[in-house]
Amino acid sequence: MQLVSADDITAAQRRIGGRVVRTPLLACTHIGDEYGLDLWVKAENLQHTGSFKTRGVLNALLALTERAGRPAGLAAFSAGNHAMAVAYAGQAYALPTVVCMPPHAVPTKIEAVRRYGGEVVLTDDLLGTCEAIAAERGYHLLPPFDDPDVIAGQATIGREILADGPPPGLVLVPVGGGGLISGVAAAVRAAAPTARIVGVEPATANAVGHALRTGGAAPATPPRSMADGLAAPFAGRHTLAHIQALVDDVVEVAEDAIWGAWWELLDATKLLVEPSAAVTYAALRTGLVSAASCTRVVLVLSGGNVSPAALATLR
Amino acid sequence: MQLVSADDITAAQRRIGGRVVRTPLLACTHIGDEYGLDLWVKAENLQHTGSFKTRGVLNALLALTERAGRPAGLAAFSAGNHAMAVAYAGQAYALPTVVCMPPHAVPTKIEAVRRYGGEVVLTDDLLGTCEAIAAERGYHLLPPFDDPDVIAGQATIGREILADGPPPGLVLVPVGGGGLISGVAAAVRAAAPTARIVGVEPATANAVGHALRTGGAAPATPPRSMADGLAAPFAGRHTLAHIQALVDDVVEVAEDAIWGAWWELLDATKLLVEPSAAVTYAALRTGLVSAASCTRVVLVLSGGNVSPAALATLR
């Protein structure tokens, strides 16, 4: 399978530059000093809609428009961040959007989609309902992760990390369906051939790890984690191909390790990040991933969409 | 009384540059669009020790060292952010520090002082105990706000705001003892003579407002606010002089307005800020301070030292 190329990433940068937040890469000396690392965080929680998803969605929409003209509308299925990004993109380009969300989706995320003008359809059959609506209305179904344009959009994060300092020795990326790490790895691997690129997913939402071990199968049990942004039910074909070719390892962290890491990360970075963004620090903190002293380490903080109720669990 | 001059601020920039975080000025389109404002936040929650206090403390210590040589140690009194900044500065320059804190101080802030190597003395008589210890040990007592070097250190925030974009039309600054707004006003007023500079304090912790109305008297009742970083029992002589000369207005927000504004600000900025940092947005949100459409508005987010227990109140 064709992987996202350097030209694809450059094209994505051209398309979405100025339309997305050029998020800062911030030093995290508080934790870095403790572990003897040169630690940095890429603050994608500061991105429009509060997560990296906006990059991939905008690139996919603009690439589609270049190739085939403006779609009649956008359809998507997602429990959260992708839903918000699609609604945001629809609003930005005056396109109608419909988003299929599970009935148990966090109310604040449903509200956010509506605030961006998106129509919300609550359904247990996310993919089926979404495909039916897209076909009926002639809308473009914009996939959450398993799409080369989406991956190329997320890859702009890797380019920015490289532009903001020397090549990192270790990059840690949260993994759900694998779109973020596929993109980041495509960008970083090209410039830093010896960098270790490691994905981290919850042990109870391990679609990518399971697929890597079984040659592509989806886990038998549905994903369930406080890191709800990583609860993809299956990995993608495109994302698996990128991960197999470009990523050194994908590790799985225990649920209680995420919880402990989350507060420490909030307190150390002073960034409001969602639990999904804390899995990478959980992997460092529990020794699941180790880094040699003084290595330049970058944690990609994927998003910041957290509810007051979730924050209250920190008490 | 002599106010902090442009040269004083330039000297402070020279002294502390590279020793403090050059904090970003971040666009806050989420709230800005809602109010029709060009809204920006200065993220001092990302500063070392999690608040702007580190700037003033480092400048005061380095200015003292230039004038009189290295002190034997540092003494300070504070319930929180100033305590942490002094302990941090002591650790950075290998000076012993002792900090007098009230017995009801937040445990996480006491722990943070100790983590930076500071000695903590819990006492109800903050000033008396601190003066006695400083005299006995020959330590320098580093004041929390009423000091020209401290004010000049905080003024570097104003210089950075000016360096990062066109002059603002309105700058909103949280007010406790008044050190932060004195510094910011000294820097901004010089470059933006027509900018409105407005301070905001809790109605139940209004030392500066009370002093402005009474010619310098301290409030009869002790300060008490969820914005605990602003609970100064009295205003300073230096800070009052700066505020009278340079600040357009100091307004007081109700306690419940701070609470409501706090969550919205966290959610909109994705920055972990303490309640004290939300008083400015509370003043905007409740219409206590108004801004003409399209005005460039800067909110100074003073700090991010918040406990899990405080966050749990958001539920």
UniProtKB/TrEMBL annotation, chains A, B:
Signal peptide: none annotated. InterPro entries: Ser/Thr_Dehydratase, TrpB-like_PALP, TrpB-like_PALP_sf. GO terms for molecular function: L-serine ammonia-lyase activity; threonine deaminase activity. The keyword Metal-binding does not apply. CDD domains: Thr-dehyd. Gene3D superfamilies: 3.40.50.1100. Residues 20-303 form the Tryptophan synthase beta chain-like PALP domain. This is Tryptophan synthase beta chain-like PALP domain-containing protein. It comes from Micromonospora haikouensis. The lineage of its organism: Bacteria, Bacillati, Actinomycetota, Actinomycetes, Micromonosporales.
